[in-house]
Amino acid sequence: MIDEKSIQTLMETCRYCSWMYVLLAALMWFSCNNEPEPKVEVADPHSYAMPSEAKVTHLDLDLNVDFNAEKLIGTAILKIDRSKDSKQIRLDTKQLIIESVLISPDGVKEKVAKYRFGQDDKILGKELIVELEPQTQYIHISYQTEPGAEALQFLPPALTDNKTSPFLLTQSQAINARTWVPIQDSPGIRFTYNATIKVPEGLMAVMSAKNPTHKSNSGVYSFEMPQPIPAYLLALAVGDIEFRSLGEKTGVYAEPSMIEKAVYEFGDLNKMMNIAEKLYGEYQWGRYDVIVLPPSFPFGGMENPRLTFATPTIIAEDRSLVSLIAHELAHSWSGNLVTNATWNDFWLNEGFTVYFENRIMEELEGPEYASMLAQISYEDLEDEIEEIGFDHLDTKLAIELTDRNPDDGMTSIAYDKGFYFLKLIEETVGRKSFDQFLKKYFTEHAFKTMTTDDFVAYLRTELLENHDDAEEMIQVNAWVYDTGIPDNIPFNPSTRFQAVEDQVHGWIAGLKPKDMKEETKNWSSHEWLHFIRVLPDSISSAQMDSLDKVFDFTNSTNSEVQCVWYTKAVKSGYEPAYENMKQFLYKVGRRKFLMPLYEAMTETEEGTEMAKEIYRVARQNYHPIAILSIDKLLKWEPES
Q1: Is position 415 annotated as part of the catalytic site?
Q2: With contact defined as beta carbons under 8 Å apart, do 559 and 588 qualify?
């Protein structure tokens, strides 16, 4: 700050210099306006938190994993940052039993806090309001989870691959962290964390943090996450798992029966890391490891920092499905490093990641391979649009999820429409310019959040304004704020998929399956997937049988192929595949596979009965997230 006396002296010295008055005015303006503008916190419709009052900056967890009671029991100590006049902090909880709350100015001198529960919502859970004293900087909460907490899945040994020990896995995205930690469960609020996790003897615990590589004899594990993360990236897994190093900063965890397969399957992980860093800058999370979970995990992968959670359904023993790992690795930049401010901005996480994944796979496997992945994205997008309608508001990238479960926005729109929007920008301004823009975007916004509106503004000022007619050619507003698929989508059919379609057309014209073997012998799993997908809807059971006798789709060990083939089998009434489909549904819990199969069965009355019969047995094997979806689909009434 410049004081008045200094300004007066300056004026006396230069009283005859007319330009000094201009300088004086500038100095006075500067003295009044050099304070930085306060950052405006983005309102999150899916959290009770009011970060402008008080927000969590660090979490200390101390939890005991009780497999018998299927609970986590322990404490969470929250360090907070608060405004001067704040009198309370608002936390998100759901399916938690709060036993006590203490407050402290220094983390040592604790006293009983006044707290109460505020709003209670079916989706958001219970608001926990803790009263703060003038010097309060720490909140100490003793609690336990309720059985059936949505983020937690406790698996008995029979539902693991090894079948010898129980297993626990968490899934915090989108707003399920609040079901196992009292926290501000918003993607716009970041915090560092430490944890102490106590587990039964013989088991290992790992988290989205610095992890152990060997089992502890005491069953006690300590963790540190020095980079700030949002709550949806909190993750914990406990089981009979082993670690194998894949490189200086990469490795894999899995059950002993799965570990060698995983080591082989992820053999290109270091190559992927090198490609990613070359594209968009240094990896900023220390290590990048992958854990292969039991088959009940409801997603393909979850980008938990430092430790991707992965479904075993990508273990095809031929590295044909590892684009999923490229996707989760890409999240280390798009999503984990620069995060959607709210779930209304979800496409900023996923559209960027699909684009990044495609670039990694293009470098790893070649442009034609990436072209196949791009066409799969296009077909998934078309299917989504056809299902919900071109004019449906949920086909916007800038979606509105207030008063709704954020899972409703986790559709192909965010992933694939977002991908094609970025692909259009790249093709319009040129790859070199777009790569420079993205690298700058990730660097300047590292460990920060981004809204859709702010990204659009950044895109215009940092990239489009430097390229004549780019804004008009891209039609940014149409892509981001309008429904449906714009006409200028940059889709180019894959030549490898065109060759696949030629085989299908030949088969329809009378070509025998055995005469197709020479042309198809080097096909990737993506080509086989496309082959099954483009088979005519009117295919008969007899035609399915003729294909199956040659290509043995029913007994495939590739989960992607299994899903599309069994779905086609249900629609065509091809009963020889039903028993294998049942076994697939009993074992696999990945929602991407469950939903198409159960939906296909519900298209007929007979199929609906079959679906319910299978689900009656399989339901106990699924994660709560998958159960919610299938219960709704089948109008399931829990049996007494």
Answers
A1: yes
A2: yes
Query: pLDDT value at position 41?
Result: 66
Per residue in 15-54, pLDDT (tens digit) is 333 333 333 344 333 334 444 344 456 789 999 999 999 9
Active site residue 328: yes
Q: If DSSP codes are grouped into helix, strand and coil, which group holds residue 302?
A: strand
Catalytic choice (232, 415, 615, 622): 415
Structure tokens at 5: 């006396």
pLDDT at 34: 43
Distance separating alpha carbons of residues 102 and 108, to the nearest angstrom: 11
Q: Is the pTM of this model over 0.85?
A: yes
> DSSP per residue over 334-389, as a string?
BTTTEEESSGGGTHHHHHHHHHHHHHHHHHHH-HHHHHHHHHHHHHHHHHHHHHH-
The total of other beta-carbon atoms located within 10 Å of residue 60's CB is 17
CA atoms of 584 and 238, how far apart (whole Å)? 24
- Residue 303's Cβ-side half-sphere holds a number of Cα atoms within 13 Å equal to 25
Q: What is the 3-state secondary structure (H, E, C) of 488-512?
A: CCCCCCCHHHHHHHHHHHHHHCCCC
> What amino acid is encoded at 455 in this protein?
F
Measure the CA–CA gap between 284 and 490, rounded to whole angstroms. 32
Marked catalytic residue, from 328, 365, 426, 560 = 328
Q: Which helix H or strand E contains 581, and what residues bound it?
A: helix 578-587
Which domains, from first to last, does the chain contain? 4-33 (no CATH), 46-234 (2.60.40.1730), 241-332 (3.30.2010.30), 336-481 (1.10.390.10), 507-634 (1.25.40.320)
Q: Shortest CA distance to 61 belongs to which of 173, 214, 170?
A: 170
HSE-up (13 A, CA, CB side) for residue 31: 13
Residue type, 267: G
CA torsion, ordered 292, 294, 295, 296, to nearest 10 deg: -120
Tell me the mean pLDDT per 10 residues along the chain, length 640: 37 37 38 43 91 97 98 98 95 98 95 96 97 97 96 91 94 97 98 98 97 97 98 98 96 97 96 97 97 89 97 90 94 98 98 98 96 96 95 97 95 97 98 98 98 98 96 97 97 97 96 94 94 95 97 95 97 97 94 96 97 95 89 85
Check if the beta carbon of residue 313 is closer than 8 Å to that of residue 588.
yes
Cβ(217)–Cβ(199) below 8 Å = no
Strand duo 301-302 + 288-292: pairing: unpaired
The predicted structure's pLDDT at residue 299? 86
For residues 571 and 574, what is the distance between their CA atoms, to the nearest angstrom?
A: 8
Alpha-carbon span 194 to 100, nearest angstrom: 21
For 243-271, give the DSSP string: EEE-SSSEEEEE-TTTHHHHHHHTTTHHH
* CA 566 to chain CA mean position, Å: 27
What is the C-alpha separation between 308 and 35, in angstroms, rounded?
Answer: 41
Q: What Cα–Cα distance (Å) separates residue 584 from each residue in 46, 509, 577?
A: 35, 33, 11
CA separation for the pair 245, 263 (Å, rounded): 8
Among 109, 497, 526, which residue's Cα sits nearest to residue 320? 526
